[in-house]
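Researcher: Good morning. I'm working through a list of sequences from a screen, and I'd like to move beyond sequence-only analysis. For each chain I'm collecting a predicted structure so we can compare shapes side by side. This is the next one on the list. No need for commentary yet; just the structure.
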Amino acid sequence: MKYIKKATALSYDKKEDKAPKVVAKGQGSIASNIIDVAKQYNIPIKKDEDMVELLSQIELNKTIPENMYKAVAEIFSFIYNMTDDKRKTDEKKD
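Model: Good morning. Structure tokens for this chain:
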């Protein structure tokens, strides 16, 4: 079975959104572009093939369903911890 690269991107503005929403999704070259843009703007990336499969079923610019809140919250927690650790490391360099 051939592996096809897939990617989704989430956005969440706690002032405007009731839940995170899918703002980009795709496979193949589109997935590569999503990942490249994330890297270019230092947006944290979490590899989770099962989550990508679920998120890719959501229409663009639609919020995630309630039954996915916990799983997505774990991803946001992972990203927060990752960026917080990086910030602390950068502060120690100064």
